[in-house]
Amino acid sequence: MPEVKQLADLIGDSPGIEAIRERVARLLQRQGDLRRLPPVLIEGETGTGKGLLARMIHKAGPRADGPFVDVNCAAIPETLLEAEMFGFERGAFTDARRAKPGLFQAANRGTIFLDEVGLLSEPLQAKLLKVLEERSVRRLGATRDEHVDVWILTATNEDLKSAIQRRRFREDLYHRLAVLSLTLPPLRQRAGDVLTLAEHFLSRACVDYGMPAKTLAADARAALLAYAWPGNVRELGNLMERVALLSSESDVTAEALGLTSVAPSNATATPPCARSPMRSATTRSSRSPAPTSAPPVRRLASTASSRRPPADRPPRPASTEDQQDRSAIQQRAVGRCPAVWSASPQLSPFH
Ligand SMILES: Nc1ncnc2c1ncn2[C@@H]1O[C@H](COP(=O)(O)OP(=O)(O)O)[C@@H](O)[C@H]1O
Ligand SMILES: [Mg+2]
Asked: Which among 151, 167, 77, 157 has a CA at the least distance from the CA of 117?
């Protein structure tokens, strides 16, 4: 299988990551013969790299010169989402003084990435299904459809199969979106990648902050391997950045990491309390690499506070992504298996 250079940004050579690289490389190799690009669904817990992978697939694929439109379905109030996604005609609603194209139109000849797709309301799920089937969209207030040629990538940290069983997510839409599905394993199942990623983030943070290079002491390495990483790669990256800033020694010790975890008996095993994907965290990467060349990348500003969650779901906290990660992790951690998840407060990656 020839290497796809852009996929090298996805650090790690654990079997789960290698399998994803291979599947994506196979898809990209064949796409020359394909008249249309298959929708790709990326599943995985928060912080496992779904956003990063989506950008990499776009950059490595045939749409690299086109726009990459990144839509966080959890961050846009439901009442606005339809107008944002599909656009509207002048006068379609009280404030619609001018017609406006939607994000699907903005992504024409490029890629649209619908993050947290599991949170779409039922009417929007129906509309998305129609876009997938007819490859056209209709603006609010319009009488005609517009053709759109977009590659649809989606991501979720929700267990969509169980959402289907609970009749929260349409099964027909799931099958349409998951023509190719990629599952990013949690970091605790990628023991072999933890140190590689830690060193990468530590050296990058030292360079970014103009600090002298730091190394990880043997006990720090052991502590990193013993920890269960409920916030996955994002948590590891944040911890390394914090350590680069706060640790005065050039050799970072376990104490400086401040991780007080009980070693899982088997580093590749999933603790029973951590098997289901987290459902309420909204994740945003502040470090996802931006495309290197011209194509516009659009990210909608977060207005999470006003988005109403579906009736069977508790309201998500209106906060930054790390705070959201933190609350999701605490929800999972507190009272369930606290010894595994507790991190020392003074150097907690979520503080
Ligand atoms: N395998 C990886 N190699 C390098 N960086 C990674 C990897 N996985 C995740 N990251 C980084 O971790 C952070 C969280 O990733 P992100 O894609 O936002 O996760 P998710 O969308 O699943 O919550 C980002 O800064 C991302 O660049
Ligand atoms: Mg994300």
From this structure: 157
Q: Which two tokens stand for residue 138?
A: 């209709």
The DSSP output letter for 295 is -
Tell me the pLDDT tens digit for each residue of 199-246.
999 999 999 999 999 999 999 999 999 999 999 999 999 999 999 999
Expressed in angstroms and rounded, the spacing between residue 260 Cα and the centre of ligand 1 is: 23
Q: Report the C-alpha gap between 53 and 70 in whole angstroms.
A: 12
Q: Which fold has domain 5-186+286-312?
A: Rossmann fold (3.40.50)
Name the residue of 204, 283, 285 to mutate for ligand 1: max ligand atoms within 8 A of Cβ: 285
The alpha carbon of residue 286 and the mean position of all alpha carbons in its chain are separated, in whole angstroms, by 11
Question: Vertex 157, ends 176 and 334: CA angle to 5°?
Answer: 155
What is 190-269+325-347's CATH topology? Helicase, Ruva Protein; domain 3 (1.10.8)
User: How far is residue 54's CA from residue 297's CA, in Å, rounded to a whole number?
Assistant: 12
Can you give the residue ranges of every domain in the chain?
A: 5-186+286-312, 190-269+325-347
Q: How far is the CA of 97 from the centre of ligand 2 (A)?
A: 33
What is the reported pLDDT for 4?
62
Give the model's pLDDT for residue 33: 61
Q: Look at strands 87-88 and 100-101 and give their pairing.
A: antiparallel
Ligand 1 near 48 CB (within 6 A) = yes
Q: Give the per-residue pLDDT at 30.
A: 78
Q: Is the CB of 50 under 6 A from ligand 1?
A: yes
pLDDT 10s digits, 125-134: 999 999 999 9
Q: How many CB atoms lie within 10 A of CB 29?
A: 12
Amino acid of residue 297: V
Q: How far is residue 86's CA from residue 102's CA, in Å, rounded to a whole number?
A: 4
For ligand 1, whether the C-beta of 232 sits within 6 Å is no
Mean pLDDT for back-to-back runs of 10 residues, the chain (351 residues): 70 95 89 79 98 95 94 91 94 90 96 96 94 95 95 96 95 96 96 96 96 96 96 98 93 92 46 35 34 42 38 41 44 32 34 32
State whether the beta carbon of 6 lies less than 6 angstroms from ligand 1: no
